[in-house]
Sequence to fold (312 residues):
Amino acid sequence: MATLAKTDQDYSVLPHMPDDVFTAPLKRPEHVGEDWLEPAQTVYDGDDDAIWNDLFARQMEVLPGRAATAFLKGLERLDLSRGGVPEFARLSAELEPMTGWSVVPVPMLIPDHVFFWHLANRRFPAGNFIRTRETFDYIQEPDVFHDVFGHVPMLTDPVYADYMYEYGKAGWNAMRYNRLKALGALYWYTVEFGLIEEADGIKAYGAGILSGPTEAVFAVEAESPNRIMLNVDRVMRTDYVISDLQPTYFVIESFEDLYRQTVERDFERLYRNLPPSFTYANSAIIDVDNLVHRGTQEYLLRGGRGSGAAPV
Fold:
């Protein structure tokens, strides 16, 4: 059976991307090579550290009781509360013996094939900049706070860390079929905006939720969004919204469940049958869904962020 990723690909060097694979064109800054890695992490000043500390404090006011246990344990294991923007070298030295991962600096969003390659080598690319006071509440391109605070604590969990590694290898397989949109939806609804069922209720493990105060409450508690148990085939056919709160969130039973549904799935057949565009709207409920909560979609129907609608 062909699983999520091909096993015969060599990831010791950046593989060649075929000409017939369609990806978003990104202009590579002159000071970085084909791996898009920065020569060094930015040296952050006192103002930058203050922004990190304020962002951290704001999130910790809302995350207890709403964030996944694995995330909160990861924060403690990496001691991210010690203050200031963390040094990637220190994070990497602490992550390596736990799950084999490291954190590396990149200047901006990087091309899909380079991102997958880093993940397939257990390297997490993190933005080498931090937002300003003017963009404190919302920044479109992920910065060091989103990447390190939101993503890196989860990499201390061995099963989740293995899922991320396998996802990186899977990217190269998806590119062969030009199904990056579908694989991107899986990333969006798990790594960025995933929820998990715990003994005392549904919690967030996705970085897009964990790094934003409004979504941390909205995703777990609001009446508006749908909450649906994860079905990988369905998720990979589902559209998503980038610049607003999600109309739908998908819930896993455990990280073992996430790994089983994805890494052990025959994706070759799925890729061959997937259409090039999405089948389902981001607010849709379909007959195969295992519903946890049917959302009212009030926030979406009132116009979302642009209308000033309350995230209820």
